């Protein structure tokens, strides 16, 4: 694989992760525990979809086959998506959404800080814009983790269960894919393994401050395939474009 192909796959992974997370957050519209939080989660969804749009547009340009961000979002089959398994997990309750979002937010803050120094000026510029959103997201979700962990017995149980259920999916975002190592060597991409320690320290600090326990490092699943949840998500997300190809408003 040459550098151009590696960069294309890299941008797909970043774009897909934000796209799928944005869709999951959009499912919370009208389902927040209060009006203010309902609006906050909807805005988070828009932020991630906006990041996905920019990254997938650039991916299409790098690929050089004339595919737009819409083509990459709505016309690819499930096996071509590169997102983390963490973000495709279906929403179960509010605590689950907050725990998942918090872990992603901590990572993206660290990641975008590093990506700002990329030799690729386009990615570096995106990182500078995206970091501002991620910092706000992290402040918001870390406060909610503490609020739920130190709240009632029921809120404590739910947020602890959410971390326990999601923890097995976190190693994927802290390890580099084979095609990323080339980009790391060229100074285009930060090494996710170098972010692992800082991510763990920050996440565990908030978990501990919230009266919660660090989840056990159990069985790490293979990340060669997606879970069944992604296919159901894409069937809904891609329905209009597949039912009416090329439809425009």
Overview of this protein structure:
Helices cover 68% and strands 0% of the residues. The chain is mostly helical and 249 residues long. It has a single domain (3-243), classed as Ferritin (Up-down Bundle), CATH 1.20.1260. The longest helix is centred in the N-terminal third of the chain and has 29 residues, at 35-63. It is globular. The N and C termini lie far apart (39 Å).
Note the main attributes of this structure.
single chain; 249 residues; Ferritin; 11 helices; 68% helix; globular
Strands, helices and their partners?
Blueprint: H1 3-26, H2 35-63, H3 69-74, H4 85-88, H5 94-115, H6 121-149, H7 153-166, H8 178-185, H9 192-209, H10 228-237, H11 239-243
Helix pairs in contact: 1-2, 1-8, 2-6, 5-6, 5-7, 5-9
Short summary:
The chain is an all-alpha fold and 249 residues long. Helix content is 68%, strand content 0%. It has a single domain, classed as Ferritin (Up-down Bundle), CATH 1.20.1260.10.
């Amino acid at each position: 694989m040459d550098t151009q192909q590696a960069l294309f796959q890299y941008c797909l992974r970043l774009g897909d992760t934000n796209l799928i997370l944005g869709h999951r957050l959009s499912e919370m519209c009208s389902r927040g525990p209060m009006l203010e939080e309902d609006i906050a989660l909807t805005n988070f969804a828009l932020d991630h979809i906006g990041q996905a749009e920019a990254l997938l547009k650039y991916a299409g340009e790098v690929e050089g086959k004339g595919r737009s961000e819409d083509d990459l979002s709505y016309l690819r089959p499930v096996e071509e998506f590169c997102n983390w398994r963490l973000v495709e997990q279906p929403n179960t309750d509010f605590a689950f959404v907050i725990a998942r979002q918090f872990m992603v937010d901590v990572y993206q803050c660290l990641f975008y800080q590093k990506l700002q120094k990329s030799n690729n000026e386009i990615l570096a510029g995106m990182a500078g814009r995206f970091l501002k959103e991620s910092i706000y997201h992290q402040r918001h979700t870390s406060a909610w983790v503490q609020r739920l962990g130190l709240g009632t017995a029921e809120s404590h149980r739910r947020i602890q269960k959410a971390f326990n259920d999601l923890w097995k999916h976190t190693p994927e975002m802290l390890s580099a894919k084979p095609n990323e190592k080339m980009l790391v060597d060229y100074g285009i991409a930060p090494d996710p393994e170098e972010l692992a320690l800082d991510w763990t320290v920050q996440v565990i600090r908030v978990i501990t401050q919230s009266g919660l326990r660090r989840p056990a490092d159990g069985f790490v699943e293979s990340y060669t395939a997606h879970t069944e949840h992604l296919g159901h998500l894409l069937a809904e997300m891609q329905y209009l474009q597949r039912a009416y190809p090329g439809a425009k408003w």
